[in-house]
Design brief:
This protein is 65% helix and 6% strand. The N and C termini lie far apart (125 Å).
Length: 575
């Protein structure tokens, strides 16, 4: 009888990988794909990028992105391409629109697993991936149609592959690292090159290697250029002013000046980082101080990676919260590595005095936060009112934040922290559905679409909504005010979509049988003065309204009034 042979080392390793990866895929499917289609696309970002993808298919122009039929060149086109392809395959829907972000978020947690496994083993990789997947900010951005999650995935993939090539002498990884960065450039521009250059240079310095020759490889650079440059060259051939606008205004201008909004105080990213990392931000001080970085080159590199991103964007004059999303991966790896030292025996959680102290502080503050939410003092009442907009998710989130460290201290199990983080992640995406009720123009746009008829028009009265265009399939005519469409107007020399004066708008409206106006509710009185007549309220969204102006009905009422006036002399004579 043949005796069964013991599995070899490679087969055993493969068998261990399967449950880890299966578990990660299950977590990723729940956090990033479940009910992904439920919230309406939110303005401005989701509406903008969905509408650009819709117009890409409408115009069949895959080179020049368009918004409201005007060239829109603030960002490169990779996410627009991916979204348009999803629309083409799955049809236009919220699921198709958000699918690229969700896939990139899933790719990010698999990358975290791979890096953690390469540094410290599969258990550390698994914990690191779970920490990243359940960070509140990561869940939010993985379920939104923006450019940030795609940039985060390609940027972090390139940085990680480059570091493995540098530290493990695996030169064959360099072309893949540069290919990932090329896709990052096609997602959001040169920032996908600047940040890796800073991180790799610092890593080379800590290892005593040549600062530039360690990571500058001509053939890999040629691959990067071959992938990323054709689009930039093609656009500049059609619009020679593109380079000035794209580099000087949209990148250097945003970074160095306040000319383009979003300026925030120097400390802006500290609370943003803590919020994005919740609930794991409570463990950051313990994880960062647990071991000396200089004794562990991989941990030192992760600190350099996170610090470079945070410092780079802190020095920027223009700041937006999602910019620091790439820093979550290295920080999650540090937390996951620290937890992996405790995961082998759950009782060892009590042997880490630093962790016990951290959990005690977390417990205390969590219960205080729950008490303040339930019985708020006067100065917190506005914050609690905002939380009520996502009720009951906000209250449940505060309760879970308090109970998670409490049960971890009682049961001394790392798994309790993971379960609590997973529950918070689920509450986050249900909370997003509540937020979308306030920020998505979907219902308003569907009302517009249902009442549209041939010859009708849509006017943005000193207001504009990308989401209404996407959902209704209609283009805005706009009473002139500063918009993101201004540069596209200069390229297309398109003035027919814009009214310079209210009189010009009124003349255009009276030539249409039916016109819909999108405006702020407070501007309705002003519109009625500039365009006398009867307006019908159709929908209300946030502080904005949709009204209709039926020119034919208005003319009929005016004609009836004229007939009555002309009949008055005859009536007087007969009397």
């Amino acid at each position: 009888m043949t005796q069964p042979t013991a599995p070899g080392p490679g087969e055993a390793t493969t068998r261990r990988k399967i449950p880890y990866l299966s578990g990660l895929l299950l977590v990723g499917l729940i956090l990033f794909f479940f009910r992904l289609e439920a919230p309406g696309l939110m303005d401005p970002d989701e509406g903008r990028y969905a509408e650009i993808a819709r117009e890409m298919l409408l115009l069949k122009d895959w080179l020049i992105p368009h918004l409201n039929l005007l060239p829109y060149l603030e960002k490169p086109p990779l996410v627009y391409w991916l979204t348009a392809l999803c629309f083409q395959v799955l049809g236009p829907s919220e699921l198709a629109a958000r699918l690229p972000s969700a896939l990139c978020a899933l790719g990010g947690i698999i990358l975290a697993y791979g890096l953690g496994k390469a540094f410290w083993g599969p258990a550390a990789g698994m914990l690191s991936a779970l920490v990243l997947a359940t960070c509140g900010g990561y869940v939010v951005m993985g379920r939104l149609l923006t450019l940030d999650m795609a940039l985060t995935f390609f940027l972090n993939l390139g940085v990680a592959l480059g570091y493995l090539a540098l530290s493990r002498e695996r030169r064959g990884l360099w072309p893949w690292a540069y290919l990932a960065l090329a896709l990052g450039v096609l997602t959001k521009g040169p920032v996908a090159l600047v940040l890796p250059a800073i991180i790799w240079t610092a890593a080379a310095w800590t290892q005593g290697r040549p600062l530039l020759r360690s990571w500058l490889h001509p053939w890999s650079l040629a691959l990067l250029g071959a992938v990323s440059l054709p689009w930039f060259i093609g656009v500049s051939v059609r619009y020679p002013d593109f380079w000035r606008f794209f580099i000087l205004e949209q990148h250097l201008g945003r970074y160095l000046t306040k000319a383009i909004h979003h300026h925030q105080p120097f400390y802006y990213y500290l609370p943003i980082l803590l919020g994005f990392m919740l609930p794991w931000s409570w463990l950051l001080p313990w994880a960062l101080g647990r071991e000396r970085p200089q004794d562990h080159p991989d941990r030192l590199f992760l600190l350099i990676w996170a610090a470079a991103i945070l410092l780079f964007f802190t020095l920027s004059r223009g700041k937006l919260a999602p910019y620091i999303l790439p820093a979550l991966l290295p920080l999650a790896l540090l937390v996951g590595h620290s937890l992996s030292g405790l995961a082998g025996d759950g009782r060892r959680i009590s042997e880490s005095r630093g962790l016990m102290l951290t959990l005690g502080i977390w417990t205390l503050l969590g219960w205080v936060a729950m008490g303040l939410y339930i019985w708020p003092p006067a100065f917190l009442t506005p914050l609690v009112i905002q939380g009520a907009l996502v009720s009951p998710c906000a209250l449940l989130g505060v309760i879970v934040l308090a109970l998670t460290p409490t049960f971890a201290l009682i049961w001394r199990r790392v798994g309790v922290l993971l379960v609590g983080a997973m529950l918070l992640g689920v509450l986050v995406f249900f909370g997003m559905e509540k937020v979308s009720e306030q920020r998505s123009p979907r219902d308003m746009a569907l009302i517009l679409k249902s009442q549209w008829r041939p010859g009708a028009g849509l006017v943005g009265y000193r207001l504009y909504s990308q989401g209404i265009s996407y959902y209704s399939g209609q283009i805005f005519h706009i009473l002139e005010f500063p918009t993101e469409l201004d540069y596209g107007r200069t390229l297309a020399r398109q003035n027919s979509l814009f009214f310079h004066t209210p009189e010009e708008m009124a003349s255009w409206v009276k030539a249409r049988p039916l016109v819909f106006f999108f405006l702020r509710a407070g501007d309705l009185g002003r519109l009625e003065q500039e365009l006398p007549g009867k307006f019908h309220l159709l929908a209300w969204y946030k502080y904005n309204i949709l009204v209709s102006y039926n020119v034919e009905s208005q003319q009929a009422r005016e004609n009836a009034g004229n007939r009555l006036i002309s009949a008055r002399p005859l009536l007087a004579a007969s009397n």
